[in-house]
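Sorry, explain these tokens?

***
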Amino acid sequence: MKNILLPTDFSDNSLNAIRYTIQLFEHHQCTFHLFNAYTPVVYDLTYVLQSPAQFGLRDPIRAASQKGLDDLITKLLKAFGTNPNHKFETIARFETLIAGIKELISERNIDLVVMGTKGATGAKKILFGSNTVQVFREVKFPVLAIPSDFEYVVPKEILFPTDLEVEFSATQLHALKEIAKLHNSKINALHVNTGYGFSDEQHQNKNKLPTFFDKMAYEFHDVEDMEIPAAIDKFKEEHDIDLLVMINNKHSFFENLFFKDTINQIGFYLNIPFLVIPSKQQ
């Protein structure tokens, strides 16, 4: 039984991510934990330190959050029907999004966090909503981000760009392998050749990587020197990629690619689901 955490703010964006997840794990036994973090519009230090119920604020706000979750389940059951593989749990909690996710990962034995992201918007080509970026940065756990307008397709082709600077581990690659096994997906490891050849460490990591995908469709691609976003875009166009996967290793090319201000200038944005794997889990 998989435990999937689905944070929601009841937006169309988060609903789309939930729909994607239900279809992704259609044939797998899962408990979906629908989580809404709520905070009062107005509260003071006394409210935080003492019981919020004393002020008559907590109950109606929590009730509204819980009703939103209950209505959401009703909507999902109407759309997908009853699946014997699937179970839904709801959590309405007076908490910040990040703290709530961290707590629930431990409390509910979560395997994967899935959330929506608005993707590129406007002239600045913002990659992700601020909440998604925060979760990528602060939650050391596999997070799958779904673009707001993405309609579900079976992830048959998975792109896994890597600079081979990370020492891979079975725990680290578990989420990727689970999804790939479930859908008989092909994993395409992509390395951009800088023209300087591989270091000893990169050679070791390259040789070790296929051992994690034994009896699975796997291919390593070494492409000519170019900007990482351009390499990803080119490969996506040529191979019809359904899912992008990266390891978020501090000081790695992932952090440079996604968390620096220059991202607004390079014209790169995602229109496919994106699985972010931390180098070390919390």
Summary: DSSP finds nine helices and ten strands in the chain.
